Predict the structure.
Amino acid sequence: MAYSMYKIFVNFFFFLAFYSHNIYASTKVIELPPIVVQGQKKQEPLSEKFIKTKNKTEQIGSVLKNNNTVVLSSQGCGYETISLRGIMQENLQIWIDGMPFQNGASPIFNLAQIQTQENQKLSTESGPLSAKRGMNSFLGVIDLKTKEAEEDYAASSFFEMGRYNTFKGGVSASGKKNNTSGSIQASGLTNNGKVTFASRMSEDTPTLKQGDFMKQNTLATRLDHQNDDWQLSLFGRSGNTGMSYKTLPGFGPLDYRAKESYQFIRTVLKRKTGFWQPSIGLGQAYFKRKDYIQLNSQQDGQTQSTIKYLNFDNTLNVLNNYQIHANASLLLESYKNFTTNYGNAFYKKNRIFFNIGHVLSLDNTLIELWSAVDGLRDKKTNIDFQALIQHKICSCLTGIINGGTASRNPTLYQLFNAFSGNKNLIQEKAFGGDIGVQYKTDNQLMTYSYFHYTIKDKISSFSNNQGRSVYINQDFVKMHGVDTVYHYKYNQWKFGLGHLYTRTRDHHGKRLLKVPTHKIMASVKKNFLNNVANMKLVIHHMGGMTDKENLTTPQKKQPNITTIDLEGAYHINKHTSLYGCIENIFNERYEFPLTYQAGGLNIRLGVKIKL
């Protein structure tokens, strides 16, 4: 089946490449006078990068893969964790529709597997952001927002098939009438195949063969009602996942199965006009997971967690170019973990967060100053601050300085793992910044930024309920790097080049920062038939790095990995589009847990219908 799909896909691209001129000759081109739109420009800091989603539904992990600062770490069964500029997911915050989602109460939540939709906006922010974002936004933020419906009526559906018996499908609909608008989208995914990886660290290591099964369903909605002054919004989301895999002896559990689900609801009431624009939001999320692990005997693990989030935001429009933002938030969370190898775990915690920000927008300058107070466990209070200055003449100079302390909720991995942290984490301090230069013209964009962060944990040892003592010393990490991006457009051609250089230094055996020193991306895109069709070639290169998970001496080094993807799309008419992708054309295979991997050639073909 995979071979026949490969032939279909190759013939599809052959048709586009060699017969596009004949189709173009029969296409009627209508020239229209230019339309000039005047409006105020919005300046965005270099630390915040908006990711433009394509005209098809994709997993967020596939979209993030094309971000130069993101490294995805595959965990098997289609699960991926995310690192941003070398900072692992446990130090990142994930926001969905204005609510913090990734924290100690929800270690099972996996953003990378959620399907993106046309009415969603995805963005990333780097650096210590606890003063501006709060609630564990410690070293980065990944933000997913569902946008308000704008058209009177719109509907679409898609179907996609790929290697490893992968099938995806979904529908979405949105509409607007008078002062009320709403949207709903549902998607599903099934995968049942076998993935084979090459040797891990040496030639004599047996090849790992893994049989995977995964099934996932997601439902998301948004409803808005508004008048000239006020707007009421309601967000809802639900998802469930089932997965299983088998591995050879010596590579972990022989048989592993898990089921998980989550439900999320949030409502927001805000004022849109006037000097004082208040906003109040209330939300709740519930997570549940059950694991079935078979080694010598059957062992079950069950996790339940609940998050309740209340926030009160205020915006004061002092002048046309000066705003004051003030926020007060309360996060209530409870966590239960039953019958694990380390015993039961349970905790409840309240977090209170206050911050105030001053935003000044001039013609060529944007200034943001944020300060925050975070009320944490044991009645300890931490103070954070953040400053951003962006000046634009012919280029753009931006600098971000962050500092202070923040307490991070422990994840399930931190609760019981001696290398990452524990539930007695008292506080965590971070100080760092970015400085960069951006040059932009009509057909090219060049960005160069330097970042430097320091991280310090204050941790104590503890004993679990089985009497097992876990001892952790103080932890200190430094990291710095350079992020360079260049884009050039010429007629129907678009060229892109990006390079991320990251260096980390930590105490041996305390924090295992698994990040390649170099990540290089290059892309070439060509539009055909007056933008009716396009093809894109993308090259990803991950540099080698030291295996810090292996504490033996000498430590072995993970080799370089280079993968090449080819993707394309053809819009038959304004309602129907065909798209496809060949990922990892040269079938690179390498498996390494908790870092990146290449699982071999993959093919995806899909069709989308929009009304």
Remarks:
- The domain at 2-610 is CATH 2.40.170.20 (Maltoporin; Chain A).
